[in-house]
Amino acid sequence: MNIKITGSGSYIPTEVVSNIDFAQHTFLNDDGTPFPHPNDVVAEKFLEITGIKERRYVTDNLCTSDIALIAAEKAIEDAKIDRETLDYIILAHNFGDVKKGAIQSDILPSLATRVKHGLKIKNPKCVAYDILFGCPGWVEGVIQAYAFVKAGMAKKCLVIGAETLSRVVDLHDRDSMIYSDGAGATIIEATDDEGGILAHETATFTYDEAYYLFFGNSFNKDHDPDVRYIKMHGRKIYEFALSNVPKAMASCLEKSGIPIEKVKKVLIHQANEKMDEAIIHRFFKQYKQSPPEGIMPMSIHKLGNSSVATVPTLFDLMMKGKLENQELKKGDVIIFASVGSGMNINAIVYQM
């Protein structure tokens, strides 16, 4: 018995927001003082560092659970399974359903429960729950699904990563330009087919790193101090990721028994192009090699950082042939990897 991804789906929001659209924003320093550079300089430097030209936001009528449901429907259809046979629905997010203009997150009932309700699944033995694991949430959900199937507790699981970060950003913070919305979903199930999940690795660093990402006040000191927004210590996250993600990927690859030469693609969390490139170079440097051309597919240029949705969305786009000059073929060995709030790191070595 092997455990594989048998179907995938994603939802790419329809609202395109380019870097130019931030021209009218009033960016401030964290102490509330005006940022010294004009917005065109901010946008130019931002593109140079992150690689993000535009990002996607959901329309005002949609929340995280809505787009999670759309991605889930597509994954179920792609896998050609009866939804009533699902044993688990695992939904990774970070902020719940935040309606447009709201200042409060809604996670009652859980988002996974809402998706199960939307799928009209009657089977009470289909267990639905959420996981809060930062950006690595979808990868961790896949690892949990793998464990359930491996232990004989499940045969089919639906794992979703969905987020609407546009609802929790401080528009006076330049970091708000990084974030976006999206959803990706996959069906994980036992199969007689060759390949599947070969190894996995997860770690949580909290001693010094727990609050590298956090909820904090707006940089605009006139804003309500009880309203919080997503904040990050970008330099610390960059250094942390560069130091620890390559090690986790190498440890996972070692567990799998697969040589580095057989790795065809690395699907890494789309957080920052320069950071991801540095991680990949450091990963291959451990094997005294340079990264092969095209080994790291990127969607960040047009989709931004949608947190838990970046990796499953990237995978689905490749499976559907929607990523230029990138494809996955049967037998290919790939690595999923992510890093984010917690601070959490994880990786999966997977054979198509």
In short:
The protein is of the alpha/beta class. Helix content is 28%, strand content 25%.
Q: What portion of residues belong to β-strands?
A: 25-35%
3D shape: globular
What's the total helix number? 8
**Spatial order of the strands forming the largest sheet:** 1-7-6-4-5
Mean pLDDT: 95
**How is the biggest beta sheet arranged?**
5 strands, mixed
Distance between the termini: 15 Å
Structural class label: alpha/beta
Helix content: 25-40%
Our Rg estimate from Cα atoms comes to 20 Å
**Low-confidence runs of at least 5 consecutive residues:** none
Counting DSSP E segments of at least 2 residues, the number of strands comes to 13
Task: Give helix and strand order, one letter per element, not per position.
Answer: EEHEHEHEHEEEEEHEHHHEE
Characterise the protein shown here.
By secondary structure, the protein is of the alpha/beta class. It is 28% helix and 25% strand. It contains 8 helices and 13 strands. The chain has helices spanning 39-50, 64-79, 111-118, 137-150, 234-256, 273-285, 300-303, 310-319, and strands at 2-11, 15-18, 54-57, 88-93, 127-132, 156-164, 181-191, 196-204, 213-216, 229-232, 263-268, 333-340, 344-351. The strands form 4 sheets. It has a 5-stranded mixed β-sheet with strand order 1-7-6-4-5, sandwiched between helices. Strands 8-13-12-11 form a 4-stranded mixed β-sheet, sandwiched between helices. The chain has a two-stranded antiparallel ribbon with strand order 2-3. Strand 12 and strand 13 form a beta hairpin. The longest helix is centred in the last third of the chain and has 23 residues, at 234-256. The radius of gyration is 20 Å and the shape is globular. The mean pLDDT is 95.
